[in-house]
Amino acid sequence: MMCYLCPLDQLYGRRRLALLAVGVGVLLLLFSAGFEHSWKHVCAPANSSDVTQSFRGVYTDRGAYDGFDIRHYIQTAAVVVGTATFLISATLWGEVWDEHFLRLRLVVVINMAKPAQGTYTCTLREDMLEKAKKELNEDPKTRLLEIKALRERVEKVPGLRSRTEDTFLLRFLRARKFDQERAYKQLIQYYQTRKENPDVFENLTPKRVQFLLEAGVATVLQDRAPDGSRVIVFRPGKWDPDKCDMATVIGNNYLTLSKLIEEEETQVCGVTMLIDLKEVGWHQAKHISPFTAKKFTTIIQEAFPVRFKGLHYLNEPTFFDVVFAIVKQFMKEKILRRIHIHGDKMESLHQFLPADILPVDYGGKLPPLSSKQWMEKLVSCEAHFADENKFGFLDMTIPANPKTGQDATESLGGTFRRLNVD
């Protein structure tokens, strides 16, 4: 028998031949179970999900894919089915077999698949869906598949108890423009940061920082900015360092961001910060060291799934340049380009945030700024934030390598970063 296999061995190589044998065996097994019917019949089992049905259009109508590289569909289907371990890489499939075989193989794979299910229901308006598609690479047809792929990786991380519901995972996908690798790494860092900074996150709930909420250190405007972003007003001059440290202030701001990011429109449009430095003195500024500056910027920039659309500074004190020089070195270039320093010139601020959405405190047309409503909203979510504290890394002696669990996608071709389905 070996003599008959030698020509094939020389032609394809042992590895390819072995994988071919596995693929053929799987095909024969599936055909014996009833897949020998026509493609159209195979492509339309009862109770199929909309997502799976959207794939089937590729095979029943050649014009549906219009020259699109069918190997991407095989990659996506493999993630859904969990068959990545025996699928040959997309490149190899394209080199060895023709398109007709690929189409037939993909029909089989999809019919093996369980529909991508979840509890998520999109609340975005049509204009927001279009914005998400244009700016974040979001596709409603494959959204659940993206979530499922990310969930499968996260569930394999040793020592991590992560939230895995659709709405939670979707925040990271949107924050990283549906790049699977970047979304995964940010989620891991999200939990690493919580574990590594107990002074900020241990038992962090609204009631723990209620005195800061009452003082109005951070609050949120009722109306959105023209670009759709939520506007947070941060007033560090309301912070009394004798009552709490900087870590508590960071936790206070973190809770506000956490609540805002639950809103799908905010996930798409982001957040704008209005930083009012009125009443800030050396009493507060002396607590801003390179250590605290790095901690704050790392938590907000790297580990939290939010898009910062602008940072607007008002009423800067005379020593602002000294303090800002400390913070600036830890900011990303992209964030630095979105910083605007207005001084006490409200007309300059109004070029970005119109008077119609601002309180009279900032030359606006609305009543004076009050933090009461936002404070009450956060405090009403005490149980939710207490539950959030139950998740995280259980044992940080186990390294949380971002590559852990990568096998869910890496065997599909080595550079699988996003589910490329049009």
From TrEMBL:
Family matches, as CDD domains: SEC14
One Pfam family it belongs to: CRAL_TRIO_N
Gene3D superfamilies in alphabetical order: Alpha-tocopherol transfer (1.20.5.1200), CRAL-TRIO lipid binding domain (3.40.525.10), N-terminal domain of phosphatidylinositol transfer protein sec14p (1.10.8.20)
A GO CC term assigned to this protein in UniProt: membrane
Single annotated GO MF: phosphatidylinositol bisphosphate binding
CRAL-TRIO domain mapped to chain residues: 208-370
Annotated TM spans: none
Database matches in PANTHER family: ALPHA-TOCOPHEROL TRANSFER PROTEIN-LIKE, ALPHA-TOCOPHEROL TRANSFER PROTEIN-RELATED
Descriptive protein name: CRAL-TRIO domain-containing protein
Organism: Pomacea canaliculata (Golden apple snail)
Organism classification: Eukaryota, Metazoa, Spiralia, Lophotrochozoa, Mollusca
